[in-house]
Amino acid sequence: MTTPDEHRPYPPVPQAAGPYPPPPAAAPAPGGPSPAVPASAAPPTGPAPAGPPPVPPSSSPADDSPRARLAALRQEVGKAVVGQDAAVTGLVIGLLCRGHVLLEGVPGVAKTLLVRTLAAGLHMDTKRVQFTPDLMPGDVTGSLVYDSRTAEFSFREGPVFTNLMLADEINRTPPKTQASLLEAMEERQVSVDGTPRPLPDPFMVIATQNPVEYEGTYPLPEAQLDRFLLKLIMPLPERAEEIEVLNRHAHDFDPRDLAAAGVRPVAGPEDLAAAREQVARVRVAPEVLGYIVDVCRATRTSPSLSLGVSPRGATALLTTSRAWAWLSGRDYVTPDDVKALAHATLRHRVQLRAEAELEGVTAETVLDGVLRTVPVPR
Question: What is the pLDDT of residue 63?
Fold first, then answer.
């Protein structure tokens, strides 16, 4: 996403700039469709969505409601991160639902910068942990340290005591350390020496993993994957977006100095708390509840899957659909809300059979088939 010129601290990219001429229009194939078909009219034959659609803009620029403040977060994040609207929306939905998010993308697509900018726009604390094979559980949760002056042990908090914890490359650390996050993610507390210690509120774990390097990694078990509310795919930027990235760096953009980029807090924990109360009042008709259950049950009978969506996954789909309906300005959930969040909520909760993988089947194609075949309530 690119911000309007009046809010962008960088000069706009010229439309036709020397070595960057616009790509030529493709000629239509004989008897084929015209390449000028609008995106809204094209059939949905492309890849599955990486995440939920972007948050609709606020209807009034003077609107000071929690919804408007969270919607303004897109523009604020866009001052540092080009594109990735779907990822921003997914992270906001994770915060609204008190869930955790798994980010997947190749190195260099601004996963860390996105989390830092989101924390700055929400006026929240954030900490980053680089997960490595020698990382110990105490390095994440904290540990008891002996104080020679008092001859007593005192607790030193780990990086998990924050609002947004970035667990970078979580699949590079052994299962013992991965498991240290389970209590923090589910119970929102850590226990050290038998003493439970509550975590700040709001609290969300944003874990990243690299989809192209599996040597020396420890894949997350299904039980831990199910603890993540959403799995968001961060794709490579489009050509125009990548030119904008280079243009910003050519004009002295420093990703380590977000204040110089103009990023400022546009919402805070109090807005998030008020938004959560409003999301809890979003109505869900019995027909929509049945539709969510039918979608999840269809994954359990799919011949391509050895593991379908559990009841926890169905609950997660209900929760994210309500949050998306609220962000869209409605107090009720429609089947389209369920479809919009189905991929991001369910893609990591299903497991393919080995023979299906050999045939090139993916979780995305299975979910596409499920959404096509399950009857939609009218």
Answer: 62
Q: Which residues contact 43 (CB under 8 A, 6 or more apart)?
A: none
In DSSP terms, which residues pair with 191 in a beta bridge? 196
Task: Check if the beta carbon of residue 313 is closer than 8 Å to that of residue 296.
Answer: yes
What is the Cα–Cα distance from 219 to 277, expressed in whole angstroms? 36
Task: Give me the helices (H) in 280-377, please.
Answer: 286-300, 311-327, 335-346, 354-358, 363-373
Q: Which of 76, 89, 85, 84 is nearest to 7 (CA)?
A: 76
- E strand or H helix at 145: strand 142-147
85 in Cβ contact with 95 (< 8 Å) = no
* pLDDT tens-digit series, residues 147-185: 888 888 888 899 999 999 999 998 888 888 888 888 889
Q: Select from 151, 153, 127, 152 the least CA-distant residue to 141.
A: 127
- Residue 35 CA to residue 97 CA, distance in Å, equals 40
- Residue 141 — φ and ψ, nearest 5°? -85, -25
CA distance 374 to 292: 10
Report helix, strand or coil for 127: strand
Tokens of 141: 């949760």
Which pTM does this prediction carry?
Answer: 0.80
All CATH 1.10.8.80 domain ranges in the chain, comma separated: 281-378
Which CATH number applies to 281-378?
A: 1.10.8.80
Can you say how many angstroms the Cα of residue 42 is from the centroid of all Cα atoms in its chain? 26
According to CATH, where is 3.40.50.300 located in the chain? 49-275
Beta pairing, strands 189-192 & 195-198: antiparallel
The matching CATH number, chosen from 3.40.120.10, 3.40.50.12780, 3.40.50.300, 3.40.50.2000, for 49-275 is 3.40.50.300
Render pLDDT for 112-127 as a digit per residue (tens, 0 to 9): 999 999 999 999 999 9
CA 12 to chain centroid = 28
Residues whose CB is less than 8 angstroms from the CB of residue 298 and which lie 6 or more positions away in sequence, other chains included: 370, 373, 374
Are 317 and 271 within 8 A, CB to CB? no
- Taking every pair of Cα atoms in the chain, the longest distance, rounded to a whole number of angstroms, is 85
